[in-house]
Amino acid sequence: MFSPARPGAADAYRRIGVETSMHTVDQHQIVNLLFEGVLREIVRARGAIQRGDLTTKIDAISRALRIIEEGLSTSLDRVDGGELAQNLSTLYDYCMRQLVLANARSDESLLQEVQSLLEPIAQSWKDIRAQALGLGAESGETSPQGQRAGPVAGSAGTGS
């Protein structure tokens, strides 16, 4: 479902504001961090709208857009990811359109919609990781360095 990391990917993640030490993070952890980042920025934008803080709203929505476009969307494996990758691509495109509208209209309900679309996928991704490691889904524990959950994640993620 997700393509292997490409040269320069670490720079892209730094540009979109996801803080991590890339040398100890596998592909699955990167996707988790991207979901955490986009959801954090949506919450930040919602708070900014409630406070009438235009600058923070614009910054947070811009970051959320970049995380989806440069992180989640570009990491999809459109060749081998099949229907799941195509469905996620369509969802990410929709989320980006809704974020642009939310920014233009200062509409918190559009941000809530995007958040409610992404949260179950983010949670499923975390659950897949826990299952791949033989942990309970609620444990939140991560694997030792270098352990990958990619093949399991690609096959088990079709239910989302």
Task: Describe what this molecule looks like in 3D.
The chain is an all-alpha fold and 160 residues long. The chain has a domain at 25-130: Four Helix Bundle (Hemerythrin (Met), subunit A), CATH 1.20.120.340. Helix content is 68%, strand content 0%. The chain has helices spanning 9-15, 27-51, 54-73, 82-105, 108-132, 150-156. It is globular and about 45 Å long.
Number of helices: 6
CATH first level of the domain at 25-130: Mainly Alpha
Distance between the termini: 13 Å
In one word, what is the shape?
globular
CATH topology of the domain at 25-130, which one? Four Helix Bundle (Hemerythrin (Met), subunit A)
CATH architecture of the domain at 25-130: Up-down Bundle
Major β-sheet annotation: none
Helix-and-strand structural type: mainly alpha
Low-confidence stretches: 139-160
The amount of helix comes to: 55-70%
CATH superfamily of the domain at 25-130: Flagellar protein FliS
Count of DSSP E strands?
0
Strand content: under 5%
Task: Determine the mean pLDDT.
Answer: 80
| CA-based gyration radius | 16 Å
Order of helices and strands: HHHHHH
